[in-house]
Amino acid sequence: MKGCLLTGYPGFLASKLLKEMQRRNEDTQFALIVHPSQLDKAERLAANKQNVRLFAGDITKEGLDLDAEQTEWLREQMTHVFHLAAVYDLAVPKKIAEDVNITGTRNVNTFAQSLPLLERYIYFSTAYVSGKRVGVIKEDELDQGQAFKNHYESTKFEAEKLVAELKNVPYTIIRPGVVVGHSVTGETVKFDGPYFIMRFLDRLRYIPIPYLGKSEALFNVVPADYIVDATLCLAQSEDAVNRAFHLTDPSPYESRELYRMVCKELLGKTPSWTISPALVEFALSISIFRRFFKVEKEALEYFRCTSQYDASGAKGVLAKGGVQCPDFKDYVSSMVKYYKTHRRDPDKLIQVK
């Protein structure tokens, strides 16, 4: 790997990818496309890092808003592109999601096509491009006429289609499930996704804890270190060229069981009764309740999702590289411990309106 371009820095996954790639590839030149609003933070985090250059750019603009000299240097150096920059907020307005996720990906696609030394283009999608589909979702499926739960899903779907339509570009599409912190340290950058469970339970700690319905839906959680290791394995595998991969838990737990494990680890007790999900959803449709429980209404959809993400393609390729997904029960304690230590950190809290 001569040169590697990343978008999405200083985001959590982009930062972890950079750190691991630097460890494995000491001679690689890394170029980070950083939005001007994130440049100060990126400069602090990248200080003293070897072989790293930061470029103030904007993926929503043609040419990534780089000047001719910067563009020429990148064309002479870059052999790999990792496109992670996106808006991940489940409640994101449509226009913002379209600008960043669709227009941004189109511009990164065009830039990648202009790189004469390009060996691989790795695009970060999401397993939830499946939208409201139910049943088994396969890795070689994308457009099945599905509807979507929110603008995040629909725009990531449209963006992935743009990548899959590229000609003469060796791409690999990564579709993670719900990403949580490191399986050993628990480290994460934001308390969203399953962490909403913990925020909800924190508010109920002094009363008997309810289950949120009786759903047998599976909840697909994967730790960040698995995503990093799996991505780098796929990025180097010839078996992964022009394919999409579900980086999801091959043996996911039911939402109810995952909720029980988190509750036991966080509060030292388990749920003892069941509340109607419709009642919870109604409550979270009212802003005062959302702010009290610190939970986004949109997050509920993912706890009752009846999709099953077939990850057999990823499992087969990753097995050759010795990469496998940890079991949630083996890292839930690390995840909860980190949350308990940092739950009052304002930088990690998702602001709920």
TrEMBL record:
InterPro entries: FAR, FAR_NAD-bd, NAD(P)-bd_dom_sf. Residues 6-230 form the Thioester reductase (TE) domain. The lineage of its organism: Bacteria, Bacillati, Bacillota, Bacilli, Bacillales. GO terms for molecular function: alcohol-forming very long-chain fatty acyl-CoA reductase activity. GO terms for biological process: long-chain fatty-acyl-CoA metabolic process. Transmembrane segments: none annotated. It comes from Fictibacillus marinisediminis. This is SDR family oxidoreductase. It holds the Pfam family NAD_binding_4.
